[in-house]
Amino acid sequence: MVVHSEWEETKIDWLIFMEAIRNITERSARGQRFEALVRTQIVPLYSRYVLSQPPKAVPPTLPEVVLMEEILPILGNHVLTQVPQDSGGIFDNVFAQFSEFVAKWNSEREEVLMQALRKSTVYACKDVPEGVLSYASTVFSCRKCGDVLTYPTLFVHECFLRLTCPNPAGLISKKTRWKQEAELPALGGVLAQEAFDEIAHDVFQDARSWQPGSNLVFSDAGYHHTVVVLDLLGLERTTTTEELRQFDPYLECRCECFKRSKGVTMGWMEALKYCKGSHSYEGSFAVAVADKRGRRTGTWQQIQYKSLCPLCQQWQDDPREDVIWHYKEHGCSEAGAQAFDSWAWKEEMDFAEWIIDPAFE
């Protein structure tokens, strides 16, 4: 039993504690309403948009869509007013303009790439040609792992994917946390940004988005080596990455980058991984033996794929896990989950092996 003197000494702490508990309960309820709205109102509209896109497209993730400045305030209003359904068709009206929102989102990402180009010695103080991001000679690299990357595959590079909604309370002490919980109610009918951050983290804990930071750089060496390949094959400098991939040149590597193993043969993108700068690029490659279509002959052995979930950008690469269940966790129906699994960006697992036809070895 607490005596009067003890109560007076601890009253303020108890009031803070009880207020915090009340706000935690309210926050939990808001989070549940928020998640229900996302599942019932956003996921169906978002799914239709994503599945209408061509293969290898990289649309915004579900959290990125939810956090768009055109959509988040509407969700927040529904959460506060506890409106369970979109009776006025507000979300339908918003998604009628969704392609414009995505265009803005995509232009912001591409501007990050353009800034990397402008910092390079190749394009410094020059006008960057329109459509340059799709050129085969536009090669980027990752400072963290050293991988060579091209557009648009760099948008799914593992080193560039980070949590969309990191835990805002991760570095806060427990005592400070209780005090903050007592200060996060809705103010004036509008959810505070801190409250939105809390809810978004609770709902999208594992979701990731493209945030390359300083790890993304333009590869001058990759550019110059690719130009040599294009000239060698008699292709235009404006040849796209996709066109060069379809041609699939198999090269004998002769430049200084391969001085320890000159004459080794490999594909274009594989060769770029070893290419460094600061030397003459002329004569770097010769075309290796290929069939009449310009392709290596052989077969893929032991191919297994991993797929990238477009909703959260987590790779699904464990054969023991049910990929369909993963999509259902996002609120997709059985049919929607099957559709997403078929549409998702897929890559060969690292242990897939290319076996060269012995006749061409």
UniProtKB/TrEMBL annotation:
Source taxon at top rank: Eukaryota
Name of the featured protein: Uncharacterized protein
Species annotation: Candolleomyces eurysporus
Phylogenetic lineage: Eukaryota, Fungi, Dikarya, Basidiomycota, Agaricomycotina
